[in-house]
Amino acid sequence: MKLDDTDRPLQLGEGRISGYLSIAFGTLSVLAVLCFMFPDYLTTPSLRVGYDLVLMRKLLAAGMVFSAGFGVLTFVLNRQKRLGALGILLTVLAAYLGGSSVEVGPRYDAPGFIGLDWFILDLLASAALFTALEKTVAHRRDQPILRSDFWHDGRYFIVNHLAIGIFLFMSVKAMPSLFSWTVNAGLQEWFGSLPGVVQFVAILVTADLMEYATHRAMHEVPALWRFHAVHHSVERMDWMAGSRLHFLEPLVTRTVVMLPAFVLGASDTPLLCYIVWAGFQAGLVHSNFGLEFGPLKYLVATPLFHHWHHSSEKEAIDTNYAAHLPMIDRLFGTYHMPRDRWPKKYGVAGAPLPKGMLRQFLYPFQRRQPPPTV
Ligand SMILES: [Zn+2]
Ligand SMILES: [Zn+2]
Questions:
Q1: What is the Å distance from ligand 2's center to 183 Cα?
Q2: 181-185 long-range contacts, Cβ below 8 Å, gap at least 24?
């Protein structure tokens, strides 16, 4: 069903902004109530232990007020009533399930979990931060926030975030059994005694070396490229576009990238700092944020650096594989970042990928389809 009447950029006073905000806050309120009802299945264990329940209930109440308020505003503006009605309906559903006074559900011994809470927190934080950055200093000023394919990539955001619990669960289970032979007690004791900042930098460098090798292999081995081509099918870059990944790709890359931290026996705090930084940088480098960061752009991966990686222009093919440190690409001869010039075109050359998330999931397994050439 198409809720919106138009593909035009959002404008104030039309009721579309308030309608979408009402739906977004309504959906998040329903999901938050479900997290309260089924904590063991829907929340991330490492986050769960740190929650202030009183604060969480206040945030949920605020979410419901926003959803209802924006829904009513949509009606007042007398446009896009379907958007407003859906937002209000979601608020009513959240209230019906218990709202902000919902009881915390019984504890089960769940065998795995879906990180719904991580999804909600990450979506709220990313949407607020990156939308503000993209509005303040846009690289492409004519590109609306809700550009074409935004909802397509939004579905990837949902699937890849909800699957993170399964990924983490599998890699936590698989790593000790598969790689226990790599563990050296002396090495881990030494590494664990290092200051947190040193550990963080060591995790960043080793993770990015692994990322470089895996990423380059995905470009150079044809069978792997078919999976990674899904990520490169993005034609308009923004913070949401980075979520377009074949779901098997993060399963492999996250395990490989975290392997050095596992072998070194990194402490919890530097490890958590790395995970938060990696998540932020993944959003940033894909975003439509036009700041070039001066000399800092040679030290850390920025939008300019990764936008060139996504370019379909000949000069940029198979360059800029690093996720954090452009220095690694310099070291291996794959660095490409012209001064003050951004790529003009993004995407894959040759045969285009099929449209739709399910078709893109199946695409690498369909041998008869010709692969894209970039
Ligand atoms: Zn790539
Ligand atoms: Zn990318």
A1: 32
A2: 182/262, 182/263, 183/263, 183/265, 184/263
Report d(CA 64, CA 71) in Å as an integer: 10
Rounded to the nearest 5°, which phi and psi values hold at 138? -80, 140
The alpha-carbon radius of gyration of the chain (Å, integer) is 22
Pair of tokens at residue 62:
């605020």
DSSP secondary structure code for residue 265 in this structure: T
**Per-residue pLDDT tens over the stretch 218-254:** 999 999 999 999 999 999 999 999 999 998 898 888 8
With 0-12 / 13-18 / 19 or more C-beta atoms within 10 angstroms meaning exposed / middle / buried, residue 82 is middle
Model pLDDT for residues 324-350, shown as the tens digit of each residue: 999 999 999 999 999 879 999 999 877
Looking at the CA of 316, name the nearest ligand: 1
Residue 188 backbone phi and psi in degrees, to 5: -65, -35
How far does the centroid of ligand 2 lie from the alpha carbon of residue 50, in Å? 32
Cα of 83 vs centre of ligand 2, distance in Å, is: 32
